[in-house]
Amino acid sequence: MRYSRSEHTRVQALQKEVARAEEDYQRLRAAYLDIAKNEPGHEVALAMIGADMDRAHAQLQELIGLPRLPFTHEPSTVVRREAQRITHEN
Question: Chain-wide mean pLDDT for the chain?
Answer without folding.
Answer: 83
